[in-house]
Every structure is written in structure tokens, then in C-alpha cells.
Amino acid sequence: MTQGSASSSAAAPIADEAVSVEKLRYWYPDEEKPVLDGVDTTFGRSELTLVIGPSGCGKSTLMLALNGTVPKMTGGKIAGHVQVAGLDPLEHEQAEMATKVGIVFQDPDAQLASIFVRDEVAFGLQNLLYERATIMARIDQALAFVGLQAMVERDVFSLSGGEKQRLAIASILAMQPEVMVLDEPTANIDPQGGFEVTQVIKDMRDRLGMSLVVVEHEISNLAPLADRLVVMNEGRIVFQGPPRHVLQAHGRAMRDELGLWIPEAAEVALELEGSAKRIRPFPLTPSEIPEGATTATVLGAWRPSEAPKQGETIVGAEKLAYTYPRQNEPALRSVTCSIRAGEAVALLGQNGSGKSTFASLLVGLRKPTSGSLEVDGNDARDAGVGTLARTVSYVFQYPEHQFVGESVFDDAAYGLRRRGVADAEVRERVLSILGRFGLDSLLDRHPFTLSMGQKRRLSIADMLVTQPRLLILDEPTSGQDRRNTLALVELLNSLRDQLGLALLVITHDMRLVAEWCDRAIVLSEGESTFQGTPEELFAYLDSRGEHALGLRSPDGWRIARRLGGMPAEARP
Amino acid sequence: MIFVYQRRPSFLHNMDAISKLVWLIIVGAFVLISQDWLTNAIVFACVLLTGFWLGRVQPAMLFFRLIPLWFTAVWLFVLFSFIYPGGVHVLLRLGPLHATREGALYGLTIALRIASLGCSSIVFASTTDPRRLVNELVEVVRLPYRFAFAFYAALRFLPVLQAEVRNILNARAVRGEGRIAAGLIDRLDLLKGVTITVLARMIRRVQITAVAMDSRGFGAYRTRTAIDDVVRPPIGVAFTALWAVALVVYIVFDVILGGHGLLRAPISGNQ
Lengths: 572, 271
Description:
heterodimer, A: alpha/beta, 6-stranded mixed beta sheet, 21 helices, B: 2 strands, 3% strand
């Protein structure tokens, strides 16, 4: 890619620094290539700094270097200099650094060490021998700040994803560090949970004056709030500065060359840069785009849905209900919907709304408690997983869960071999599908040794090789950058057209719904509360107010509305 | 879910965790020392009474949590009924196999032993706040907190591990593994695959957990601030002492002095 100019890639001087990194280089043990290759930057005090970059660019490693975890726990070689709140993490014990810098990780289930909410917040303070009265006061303050004070005696298993992430933040907040680092804090949670976490981040900067560093893939919500945007690639910082400045000057390179998501408002503005209609100040949110600035169709900001597919019905559910064994409350109360051949249907809803339960019924892992469910002509009440899995394939959220082979080839061949397909045909079909997914050069590699993007592609190839009628994808774009997401969508689109494959996509990614799906089904507390095209859904959400059903219309839709490219009236 | 603690007011909930742990050990000693079905039946009944009456444990919960254990107990009862060596009083003939009275009583003893151990463990786990146990292990037993916390962390992550295994089994079932894992070889193959996947994912998770704990000062000092007082109601200590006295009396009269008719129930009808 084109490297940024010296002024944009060098650390601009900040009067009051919370973090300073100079010529930082780091090699993981036994690696010849450094994962950090000369990082120079500063993060300002009481500022929100956003760090983005393609997968594997070294951003998470940089964050772990701020408290000395890299290299103290990871080993390897380090060169250069880091200073956080006036201390060098290499020269101070982690206990000392704990009150200077706190880290919130992407997966709260891995971060939370205690069983009860109160203990989790107290954990660090107890370790550092704070007095009991101080600890109790800090617990109250931290939980009140993140809005969890009513849950102080709850166990962590009963919390939602968003609540767990807010608890993880509270547990760091209680230690009152000068700098808080958050590594993809909204990646695994639903839009409502993500909104709540974003609010907490904003409040920590605005009300507490904390210095915050947030690593993210999707920056639409945070870029307008951030003071500084740092873009990394291949272990280096390539662009940095105020978000508006960086996106205006380098947005195209970030999107097209680094394969990063940029805010949709910025995408629209970039299309107008250099023309008489260019927008100033450079917008980061839909509301910053003047009404009538241009037309939505010209900009391609909105892809209106195509006419509904008229293919054969693959799935027909009528008042479908399911209650887990030994549970009083049903997980599904009443779901009525259909899915046709060739359709891409989004299955939406908050965590716990019944999406995964519905998907598990489709593939025969569970049998309906009441109501009817027909899958490709089979009554799901009678057919087991052995029968339904011939028609329906399910790509789970974590690809490793479904790897069964010792090599990429064996893994992809597994389903066909189980069906008794002849060896020659197995080889032909496996090589064909792996070729389409760009995995044909990795035939002998163990699936566990692949990169995350490769694992995701293999897990889908594994399922498509048996030519199912319906493919269920659980959060296929979670943690993926723009380049990987678009490649996956393009590939699935071509297979959909060729094979008449129906897709059911369980997702929180409303941009994916807008740009890819033909229809959306929304579940809420086990009931199907909405079915329609993405436009109908977003209009419905707008009419119900922000965050209705725990969902939020994507910025692309809002921009299109402002530009007059979409109907003004909400359609049911 | 593996985490079974249920907060509610009861005698056992109020009792200190160390006394309850000692009670659990006494129950274990009782069933391991006693060799006859009647003593084991009495101990089992006492454990159930303790759980239902003093711990307000729900019978349905106790039953469902221990379903695999019930199967094991019944299976051992049936097995020993047929294979007990030296049985003379035949109760049932199935071709060349004979179920004997002696075998049935021995099998019953083993089954009751397993049931007592399982039920007392569930009674302990469902009435003991893990925080209180860890706190008392550190404050009363003087166990280093890193060791005590390892137990607490295990309770925290076992449900996560359980969910992980369930997801892996579901994912593999969809690929056809659950359906074909009928034979022993297939089952072993499935077990190997699931274990590798779980280990790979849990190692990564544990690494994150270790970083998250260390970066909050875990292990930085030899001690750690306790935020709860240790409360040991005398009535709880007395309850455990009562069980201890019963065990001592049983050992003295039934084991050391030969148990002449005090509790020991005859295995053979001729005794």
C-alpha cells in the first residue's frame, strides 16, 4: 500500500502524554519477523484514542506492551521504549503497573475471574491490599458508573454479554488506573450491549477524564467520539491524527488498500471529495451529511432489496415453540416464518432472544416442543440430526468447534466420506471447493494452525462441499476486517446463485444485513416479531425509536434517508 | 450447569464452610468404613434428611444432578447380584446366571455408598457459598490464597468448559459425528477430537485469564485483603461434632469390638 506521509505517520506532539511509545520493536519467541516494527506514537491524557488495523497488524500486541505483559509473560525480544503514566512497564512490577494501566479484553468470559459481580470488582483491589472500607466504596462507585449497581450480588453466569463487558470495565475502573485499554470491547455483544459499552467509554473520558485506548474493527460508533485515530499495518503506524483528518486524508487507502471498515458517512464524503459538492467539515456520522448533498443512488450508499425470491420453500415454521429440559420458561414461544431457496435471510435479535435455539431446531439438534417445523419436506419433529444435516448445514461461530480432520483436505472430505462418496469424486469435489475458498495450497496443514480468516473459510467450505439446500452461518463476520468480510460475501453470493442455496445468517452486523440480505427475521423473547426486507426492517425500527428490539438501523440507511434516496414513511 | 450453589436461608447455608467440609469428610469415612447395607442405608437416609430438612435442597434438583450416578448405582447393584462370589441363596435365574441374596445385599451396599457420597457432595455444593469456602480456607485453615483461589477459579470456569463441550458436540453432530459414534472405536475417536479442540481453546482462554489476573496484581503479595468476616456459628460446629461422635461410636463398637449385633446387618440369611 501507499505509505502515509511523514506528517501523518509520525507521532504528532501532544502536550500532555498518557502514553509514549518510541521505536518499539517486538519479536514473539522463535519468530524472525517482528510483530511490532518501529512503533512511534503518543496517546494524550484524558483522550480517547482509537487504534485500528487489519487482522495480525500487531495492535493487540502493542496494547499488551503497555502494561509489560509483552514481553514479561509472552517472552520474546523487545527493543525501543514505552512509558505509561510516567513509568516504564519493563522496569516496574505488574502490580505497580496495575494502578497505572488496566486492560479490558475482547472476551469477558475469559477475563472475569470471579463468580460474583461484587468479587470481580474487588479482585484487583484485594490483590493490591487496599483496605476493606476503600474496596467496598470503590465497588459501589464502579458499579454505579457502569450501571450495574443493582446486580452487585448476582453471579456472572446470569449476565448478558453487554453486562459482562461492563463488569469487566468496572473491575478495571475500581483500580482507578490512569490509562484504560479496551481490546475490541463490543466485538462479541449485541447492538444494544455495544451501545451501552460505548456510552460507558464516552462517560469515562468525559466525566472521569480517563485516558482511553480502544482497539476496534468497526469504528462507526467510536470514531465521532474519539480524539485520535491510529492506523496500524504490518507492525507499524501508518496514519495517525484526529479522526476527521485521518479519514479525510487516508480513508480511501484505509478502505481499499488495508481492507478496513470506515464509517459509512466517511465513505459517502470520500465520493464527493474533489468535487464541488465536497462536504465540510468532513462527516463521521449520518447527521453530519447535509440533506440533499447528493443522491443516495449515485453514491451507492444504499442497495435497495431485489424483488423477493420465488424459489421453493426450504423452511416453514408455524407457531414453533421449544422449552429446554428442566426449564420452566420456553426459549422459543412462537416463531412463524419461511425461508426460500436462493434467499439470504438475516436472523436478528438480542442475545438470548432464541436465535441459536431456532437454528438448532432447523438442523435437528433439538426437537420442537410444539408447533410445526418443516425442513426441505421433512417434519422436524420426526427427523433427527442425521436426516436434517443432509439438507441443512450449520457453520458455528467458532470454526475450531467443527474441525474433525487432521489436515485441511481430510477435514473438507469428511462429510462426503461419511456419505460413502467414491474417493475420486471426493477428491474432485474437495479440491474444487477448497480452490474457490483459496485454501487449495494448504491441503496438508492442520486446521488448527490456520489464520482466523482461513479457519472461517474452511469451516464454510466443509459444509458447502456436501451441497446442502440451506446453510446457517452464525456470526460469520465477527472479528473480521472489511477485506475478509467482502471476500466471504462475494463467494457465498456466487455459490447462492449457482446452487440455489438458501442462507440463514445469524448476526448482529446491521451493515451486513443492509448490504447482503434479502430479508430479515427478528426474534424477541422467543417470538418472531418482524419479517420483511431490510428496508422494511429499518423503517420499522425508525418508527419504533432508536434501539427498538435491541437493534439499530445502519448508518447507510440513515444517510440514504437524509439524501432522499429512500421512502420517508415507515412501512410495516 | 456444574455450578450448583443456591442462595436461600437454611441451617446448612448459615453454617460455616469448614465445619460442613468436615461433615462431608465424615460422611465419606462412614460409608468407606462400614461394610454392611444397613449402616449404609442409615447414613444415606441421614444425608437425605440433612439435605432436605436442614439445607432446603430440592429433591428434584438432587435427583436430576445425579442421574449418571443413579444409573451407576443400579448397574452395580445388578452386576454384583449376579457375580458376587460365594452367594448361596438364589433369588433369580437367567440361563447360566444366578442372582443371589448375598450378591444383591453386597450390591446394595455399594450402591448406597455411591449414593451417599454423591448426595452429600451435592448437599455441600448447593448450600456452600464458594466465596465463604475460599475465605475460610485462607483465614481459618491458612491455605495460601493462590491455592484456595484455584478452587474458586475452577468453579468459575467449569460451566464455561461445559458449554464449550456442548457446542463442540453439537458442531460435530451436525457434521455427522454424533450420529455415527455408536461403536467403541468411534466413541474413542470422538472423545479424542473433542478433547483436542477443548484443550486448544481452553489453553488460549486460560492464557487470557492469566494475563487478566496478573495485570490486576494477582499473586503480587503473599496475602490479600478479605472483604468478608469469617462467621462460625457454634450450632454448625456442634452439628459436625455430633456426626463425628457418631462415627467414633460406630468405629469403636462396630469395627474395633466386632459389631456384635449393634448395626451390622446380615448378608447371608443363615447368619
